[in-house]
């Protein structure tokens, strides 16, 4: 592994983002219609290998249903506006109209200070479940023990535990930490947990019994974690490292496969095949879906990092509108910039390199571009 000397007393690994790599075409090509991009986790099969990020600007009960009907998985944020307010629409409208960065942060903190209502958790999950689509919902590690029973009782199919950084071993002198291994063992539903960014952290999360591991810190275009905490994930390297942990955990566990889900860095359609090429089984998409005409945020985007009462690590951003959710996911595209038809682009990328299945495509050749050759 290449390390660079930062100074006499510190060395660091060279790491790469999706922008730093490119997929290499092979001698064989295929018809895009003959390519399968279906993905299965536990007992659930999806025609589109993605999860919509549990962010209030992206997923409402209605959009979760729509995404499920299209073949994806919408993940509802159970700590957001939908579980704090009976009717969050006036607040969503207010947030979409608030463009001043300083005022937006203060107002978001005020809005999200309202308590989470346990009865609304069951109500929102039931709303999605009654539509017949696979139902997924997310809590942070800090809220999981408190609300997990309500989530499971409501009939969630897939439970997502998502935080900026999630570890299998959290040390706290102030409170009893969540024992992930025991918690997952006692649940009757598959659990996806993250984020993580290293081989070691991922391996420990896999040993908890998780069905999937989120790679990255989430938040994407709306987070400021690098500026606030000095922490950043070069996603290509992070996904490849976690994919290596998956391979070694399969040997260790006697063949148990844990899905690797890239959570962050997938801002354009070309980033999606790069994530799969680095070893991801699926991706979590946030900001591209926030640009949908039918998104709850109406082109505005923010995450739970932005509403933290002490150290907000995100902000409200105006991404604009590009098209409907369907156009962004499956086309047709009316723009040449990679903001639409993400899964049409994945099919074509796989077809151009001669692959017909996602797991095969993980073996595709990639190159690393130096700074002067980056687009």
TrEMBL record:
InterPro entries: Aldolase_TIM, IMP_DH, IMP_DH-rel2, IMP_DH_GMPRt. Transmembrane segments: none annotated. Keywords: NAD, Oxidoreductase. CDD domains: IMPDH. It comes from the Bacteria. The keyword Transcription regulation does not apply. This is GuaB3 family IMP dehydrogenase-related protein. The lineage of its organism: Bacteria, Bacillati, Actinomycetota, Actinomycetes, Kitasatosporales.
């Amino acid at each position: 592994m290449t390390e660079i000397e930062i100074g006499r007393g510190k060395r660091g690994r060279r790491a790469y983002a999706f922008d730093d790599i490119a997929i290499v075409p092979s001698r064989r090509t295929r018809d895009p219609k003959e390519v399968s991009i279906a993905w299965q986790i536990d007992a659930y099969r999806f025609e589109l290998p993605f999860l919509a990020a549990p962010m209030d600007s992206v997923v409402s009960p209605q959009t979760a249903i729509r995404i499920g009907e299209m073949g994806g998985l919408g993940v509802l944020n159970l700590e957001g506006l939908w579980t704090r307010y009976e009717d969050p629409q006036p607040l969503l409208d207010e947030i979409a109209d608030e463009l001043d960065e300083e005022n937006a942060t203060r107002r978001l903190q005020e809005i999200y200070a309202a308590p989470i209502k346990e009865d609304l958790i069951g109500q929102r999950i039931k709303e999605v479940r009654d539509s017949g689509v696979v139902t997924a919902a997310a809590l942070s590690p800090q809220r999981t023990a408190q609300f997990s029973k309500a989530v499971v009782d409501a009939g969630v199919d897939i439970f997502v535990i998502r935080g900026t950084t999630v570890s299998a071993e959290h040390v706290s002198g102030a409170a009893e930490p969540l024992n992930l291994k025991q918690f997952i063992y006692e649940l009757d539903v598959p659990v996806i947990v993250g984020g993580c960014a290293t081989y070691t952290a991922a391996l420990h999360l896999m040993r908890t019994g998780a069905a999937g591991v989120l790679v990255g810190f989430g938040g994407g275009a709306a987070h400021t974690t690098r500026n606030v905490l000095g922490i950043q994930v070069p996603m290509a390297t992070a996904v490849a490292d976690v994919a290596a942990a998956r391979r070694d955990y399969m040997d260790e566990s006697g063949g148990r496969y844990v899905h690797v889900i890239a959570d962050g860095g997938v801002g354009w359609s070309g980033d999606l095949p790069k994530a799969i090429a680095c070893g991801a089984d699926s991706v979590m998409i946030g900001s591209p879906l926030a640009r949908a005409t039918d998104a709850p945020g109406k082109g505005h985007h923010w995450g739970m990092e932005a509403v933290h009462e002490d150290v907000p690590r995100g902000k409200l951003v105006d991404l604009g509108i590009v098209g409907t959710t369907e156009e962004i996911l499956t086309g047709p595209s009316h723009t040449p910039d990679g903001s639409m038809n993400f899964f049409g682009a994945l099919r074509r990328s796989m077809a151009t390199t001669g692959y017909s299945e996602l797991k095969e495509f993980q073996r595709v050749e990639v190159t690393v571009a130096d700074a002067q050759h980056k687009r």
